[in-house]
Amino acid sequence: MLIIVLLSVIIFTRYLLVAWGYQWILQHWLKLKISRIADLARCSQIKKEIGWSLISSIVFALMSAFVYQAYLLGHTKVYLDVLEQPLWYFIVSPFLFLVSYETYYYWMHRVMHIPFIFKRVLKVHHASIQPTVFTSFSFHPWEAVLQFLFFPLFLCLVPFHVAMLLMVLVFLTLSAVINHSGVEIFNRMALTNHLIGATHHDLHHKEFTHNFGLYFTWWDKWMKTESKTLAKHSG
Fold this sequence. Notes:
By secondary structure, this protein is mainly α. The protein has helices at about 1-30, 35-40, 45-70, 85-110, 115-125, 140-150, 150-155, 160-180, 190, 200-205, 220, 230-235, and strands at about 80, 160.
């Protein structure tokens, strides 16, 4: 029980620090005006997002504790010794994870947009028509479960070094905040053609029927689900 409480605190605190930290960088370091933050501060959206994010953090903590127990029992392929696998694999493994998770997420996300499922699960996240940095963890508990489910599946099947696992977790949190911030930082076409930023994901929250990807635009391009409005923003 104690480990679940500690993990919940760590995950939720990390979410708040990254969200607030990224917003501070945008507003005070890069001197960018985020009008939607000022507008939404007067309503309940951000408070609701933080509330749902706390619940998501508890769900992630419960499932993380399960994965940790599986690791202790030897049921995962997580390893500590870098030399246990070839060095090239150690370097390539996070990219393997991200590409695999992108595939899982894209199709899982499309399934969650089926009206019956959307109304009962995804509606919580999509209540934020104008997402903010705090929307990044704002999920219904079942969506949090589905998002995390990939981790035990991957870690039980594919060798993965613990350092790379921690690096990926940091990347996931930062990426989620960037995508929901409302400020595009991947503003060069060479990047926006391949990486999903705020513009790409903002359109998903507005249009609902396009831009289902998480990190990369590839699946949306291949499945013809990328928003046509994106070309106007990129032009």
